Each structure stands twice: as C-alpha cells, then as structure tokens.
Amino acid sequence: MRFKNVTKSFSGRIAIHHISFAIPKGQIFGFLGPSGSGKTTTINILTGQLAQDSGEATILGKDTRELTADDLLNIGIMSDTIGVYERLSIYQNLLFFAKFHGISTDYLDHLLKALDLFDDKDKKALDLSTGMKQRLLLIQAVLHTPKLLFLDEPTSGMDPTLSQEVHRLLVSLKEKGVTIFLTTHDMQEATELCDEIALLYKGKIIEQGAPQDVIDKYSDKDKVVIRFQNGKSITVPKEETVNYLEQHILSIHTMEASLFSIFISLTGENFEHD
To answer: CDD domains attached here (predicted)?
Structure first.
C-alpha cells in the first residue's frame, strides 16, 4: 500500500496536502489526527471511493482509481458510512456475508463470542447501541480475512475490556499477513498496537515513524521525575538521583513523552478538540 505526494481538495479547501507513506504487508499503520484533519479522505482515496487531485495511490499493486469488483473482495472496510440491514438481526447480517465469502459459521460464532455479541446475536440491527453496532461492523469487515483492512476508529466508545479484545483480534489478523490501516483518536492504542504511525494535522503529516522511535525523539532521557510520599515532586538530572535515595520516595520516572504530548508540542493544540 502506497501514497506518494497525494493532494485532495474540496471546493478549493485542501483536505490533504502532499501526503506520502508506504505500508509493508502484514503491518498495522496508525493514522492519527483530530476530526477534520484528512483521515477519512485518505481512506476514501485508498479504497477507490475518491480520486485524488494529484499524486499516486496504490493498493494490491494497482492504482486505486482502477480497482475492480474482484479487487474489493480482498478489502475489508469499517467506518460509520458502511451500512447494515437494520431490520435483520446481528446474526442474519453477518451470515449473509459469511455465505457470500464461503466462511464457516463456526468462525462467525468465534468472532461473535470474542467481541461479546453472541448472546445478543438475534437482536435487530435497528435496536443496537452505538457500541454494539460498532462491533457488528468490525466483524463484517474482518469476517473474510481480507488482504487489506481499513478501520476508522474501531474501538471508539468501547470499554477497555472490549478494546483489548479488538486489539487481540487485529494482532491475530496481522500474524496471518493482513495489512491494517487504522485511524484512531486513542494515542495509547496507537502506541501499543501499531508498527508505524503518522501524525496528521490540517491535511499534512507532521511526524511519522515507529511509535517508540517518535516518542524517543521527543523525550528527555537525561532527566527524571522523583515523587515523594508527602505529595511533592521534583525534576532532576538523572545523575543526581542518588542524592535523594535516602528520602521517602514514592516513585522515580524518566521524562518520556507521549504521542499526545508530542502532538500538542508540535501543533500547540489539544488533539481531542480540533
């Protein structure tokens, strides 16, 4: 999967500007940015739903503007623009796709149990909560183990336990060679899950690389934060730590940055409130 100097505008407003990245097979790529930064536009170009104004976009070895119906069978997409049959149950919706792709009902049941939908499988899609519909769409996207998987905020609104189940599912798909393009607001999720991330701001990539490499680039490894049992804390050079070991210390931490703090330092804006 590759993007090279891709630009897209809508009515004169630039949505993405000279964006480039390449994603090797079997990796999880995190595309991080606030609402309106260009994440969905990028997915729509990669999946052939939009044509870029300039630059190159390729998946499955083809220009995304030339994808065929057969190519789309190798792609899984989860986003809030993907519909379901609202008068059918969870199970009926997914059984349709399972039969279409020749997937066993045993594997379908496995996914329903993994994402805690099995006991509710007879509920109509019309009556589902946002979180339940989110999980239905995720199963629909991964059911046929596609070569490429595009996930738009897959764990949004999920509790931590379910989010971890989703992470385990995505890692298992990665181990099968599935390439995953993931957008998320959750910086911690990206840090733990992704092989590489790109920070997107106002249509431009402002930082890119393996999550820990990006974190290390902006971390101050020469200082530590010492927290004392009386509630006070100080920041000192690492070599001075020994001077405080006789005191009532609660914890000692290195000055490691987070993707969240890095985004704020680069843009001056809160990631969650663009």
So the answer is: ABC_DR_subfamily_A
Strand order across the 204-209 sheet: 75-78, 148-152, 179-184, 28-32, 196-201, 204-209
Domain of 141 in residue numbering reads as 2-215
For tokens 């006789």, what's the residue? 246
| 241 shares its domain with 135 | no
**DSSP code of residue 186:** -
Q: How far apart are CA 136 and CA 133, in angstroms?
A: 5
Q: What is the pTM of this model?
A: 0.87
Amino acid at 203: G
pLDDT tens per residue across span 111-167: 999 999 999 999 999 999 988 999 999 999 999 999 999 999 899 878 889 999 999
**6 contacts 31 by C-beta, under 8 angstroms:** no
The identity of residue 114, as a single letter, is A
As a whole number of Å, the CA-based R_g of the chain is: 22
Residues with Cβ < 8 Å from 254, sequence gap 6 or more? 219, 221, 223, 224, 225, 238
Q: How many domains does the chain have?
A: 2
Same domain, yes or no, for 103 and 209?
yes
Domain membership of residue 272 (yes or no) is no
